[in-house]
Specification:
mainly alpha
Length: 89
């Protein structure tokens, strides 16, 4: 009798790709509707950037140590993107 791992290894890759495709496509077509919440500090930072005038200078400081870098690297990129979109138009 073959084990589950043997059965999965013998499975055609196209079935796996189909399952991954469905796992991505179905939530895009029919969203689950989970609430999106923001914290007060996030809302305050966003509103501050929105109040800036074109040409205003923004100094962003990202103080975190190397152990947290991998987990927090997305936040500075998003913040800089929001500020640069605001300054360009």
């Amino acid at each position: 009798m073959a084990s589950i791992s043997d059965k999965l290894l013998s499975l055609d890759r196209r079935w796996l790709f189909l399952l991954v495709f469905l796992g991505v496509a179905i939530p895009i077509i029919r969203p689950v509707g989970l609430p999106v919440t923001t914290t007060a500090s996030t809302r305050m930072a966003y509103e501050y950037v929105e109040r800036l005038e074109p040409g205003d200078v923004v100094w962003l400081s990202f103080d975190y140590g190397p152990p947290r870098r991998r987990r927090t690297i997305r936040w500075p990129r998003r913040s800089c993107g929001t500020a640069s979109r605001k300054s360009s138009g």
